[in-house]
Design a protein that fits this description.
The chain has 156 residues and is an all-alpha fold. It has helices at 2-33, 36-71, 75-112, 117-153. The chain has one domain (2-153). 92% of the residues lie in helices and 0% in strands. Helix 1 runs antiparallel to helix 2, helix 1 (2-33) runs antiparallel to helix 4 and helix 3 runs antiparallel to helix 4 (117-153). The longest helix is centred in the middle third of the chain and has 38 residues, at 75-112.
């Protein structure tokens, strides 16, 4: 049981850590050091791995939260963690597999021609949505981690 709990917590902290490091350290430095077009290209190259980590860690976390819901005491807390992780994983999949390709397509067309104001507006809208979803995923993952800690401490 300890190894399963370790894998669950490792998945959560890797996912949360990657989000914090990318969002608060990596991306701001890249956009401060490079011209915006070049910074966008660098970040776009990082995103497939960023989202892949979310898919894998989120999948592991969700499956194990469901396992703990069935197998451990503190069931309500584990249900809370599972719900938070379901929402997190769903949002991550949407951001990575729907929004990111649309944003990349707009960026690619804009680089080849004069930027169309309507394209720029669409890019900005999708980018804001992506940032908002990532912020929500971070909050939900922290809620899942808190719920997990509460479940573990409720065991006495």
């Amino acid at each position: 049981m300890a190894i399963i709990l370790f894998l669950y917590l490792l998945a959560l902290v890797c996912w949360i850590g990657a989000m914090v490091f990318f969002g608060f350290f990596t991306a701001p430095v890249i956009f401060r050091v490079l011209p915006i077009a070049e910074a966008g290209k660098v970040v776009a190259r990082l995103f497939p791995r960023y989202y892949a980590l979310g898919y894998v860690a989120g999948g592991i976390g969700l499956v194990l939260a469901l396992y703990f819901t069935a197998a451990r005491s503190g069931r309500a807390w584990w249900v809370g963690a599972a719900v938070a992780l379901t929402l997190s994983l769903g949002s991550t999949i949407y951001a990575g597999s729907v929004l990111r390709p649309r944003i990349d397509a707009i960026r690619a067309v804009s680089e080849q021609s004069n930027p169309d104001p309507s394209r720029r507006a669409e890019f900005d809208r999708l980018h804001r949505l992506s940032v908002t979803l990532n912020g929500c995923v971070l909050v939900l993952n922290l809620a899942a981690l808190f719920s997990s800690a509460a479940a573990l401490s409720s065991r006495g």
